Amino acid sequence: MAYEFSNCLIDPDKHLFVCGGLPVHLEPQVFDLLLLLVDRKGRLVTKDDLVEIVWHGLSVSDATISARINAARRAVGDTGRAQAIIKTVHGRGFQLNVDVRVVAAPAQTPNLARSDTQNIQFACSSHGTRIAFSKSGNGPPLVRVAHWLSHLELDWQSPVWRPLIETLDGKNTLYRYDQRGTGLSSRDLEGADIDAFADDLKAVADANNLDRFPIFAASQAVPVAIRFAQRYPGRVSGLVLYGGYAKGRAWREATQSDIDEVTVLGLIRAGWGKEDSPFVNAFSTLFMPGATPTQLASFVKMQTETISPENAARLRQIVDRFDVSEVLASIRTPTLVIHAISDAVQPVEQGRILASEIEGARYVSLESRNHVPLPQEETWTKMMHEVQLFLDCLQR
């Protein structure tokens, strides 16, 4: 037997979850959590119930439970704001907010709508640089601009980045790539500047025959996306800019919350890739203070396999000198700007500058301290809901 609810079906015997007629890959804990909610048919499921049944009595944090609830909501097409399917009963637990029907299990397992593998290829950019890119998902194109620390293979399994990838390619064909100097792309940083990074974005778009497409950019990828939109306005249908800046740290007047370049470079050189080093501890405090030990460990692994300490410091110096402040007024592309209010890496004032000087831009603030978006945060659901609404509007 299987259970139907809303437009979803869950089959415990086949460990199969289907939404909208298409199978969806779920982590085991998310599957078990969703099955428990469905099995209770609208009755309250307490946190103690979740710990006992999903985690088999092991001690887990509220953040871990929230992360799995958020993943279950994404799988069924719900949000923390709407709570149309999974309802939070504050202080008590969770319950399913729709009717459940017991049905015959499907005779055959449908083909996966989304492969759990990615196809990595290479494009040639300026200065003969090889740029590694990948493609996943189905639907209209969406390009995620590369940033300071990325690795196509490690990101695919990362507890930080995989949830973002799965959300972005849930309704889109997502194109990702490693920035020059990092990951699987050429490690040479000769001639690297904001125009070279814009060339890398163009190389990936050209290699995939993308004439016009929306862009998702985070942190220092934001000025790269803006420079690309300035150079090729006809090719960009929309900009989603998260945690970015108009003027890099080296050029802007320091604020009380702004971390200085010397401190960042010193931390990199002292502890790159070393667990429990001053850099890793500082990173967890500055970049993602809400990270779990597993997420932080994945970052340490990412460091050693993505870029050398020398190039990491050099790349930071390069991106800290990006400046697109003079071209913001020329951008006419529909734009969504999202920024964490207490971001210690890129001050919230930079997000407000982007939103105020790009004509017609919409601004969304998040009550968060994390520069790197974390799926266990309540603000994650709000962020992804706003992103999907924006992308949906571009298709109308």
Question: How would you characterize the overall build of this protein?
Answer:
The protein is of the alpha/beta class and 396 residues long. The protein is 37% helix and 19% strand. It is built from 13 helices and 16 strands. The protein has helices spanning 28-40, 47-53, 62-76, 152-157, 162-168, 194-207, 221-231, 261-271, 278-286, 293-306, 309-319, 348-357, 378-395, and strands at 2-5, 8-11, 16-19, 22-23, 45-46, 86-89, 93-96, 100-103, 119-124, 130-136, 141-144, 173-177, 213-218, 236-242, 335-340, 362-366. The strands form three sheets. The chain has an eight-stranded mixed β-sheet, with helices on both faces. It has a five-stranded antiparallel β-sheet with strand order 4-3-2-1-8, with helices on one face. A three-stranded antiparallel β-sheet has the order 5-7-6. Helix 1 (28-40) crosses helix 3 (62-76). It is globular.
Percent of residues in helices comes to 25-40%
- Mean pLDDT across all residues, rounded? 88
Order of helices and strands: EEEEHEHHEEEEEEHHEHEHEHHHHEHEH
The shape is globular
For the record, give the distance between the C-alpha atoms at the N and C termini, rounded to a whole number: 39 Å
Please work out how many helical segments DSSP would assign: 13
Given the helix and strand composition, which structural class is it? alpha/beta
Uncertain segments are 110-114
The proportion of strand residues reads: 15-25%
| Strand order in the largest sheet | 9-10-12-11-13-14-15-16
The total strand number stands at 16
CA-atom Rg in angstroms:
21 Å
Q: Give the biggest beta sheet.
A: 8 strands, mixed
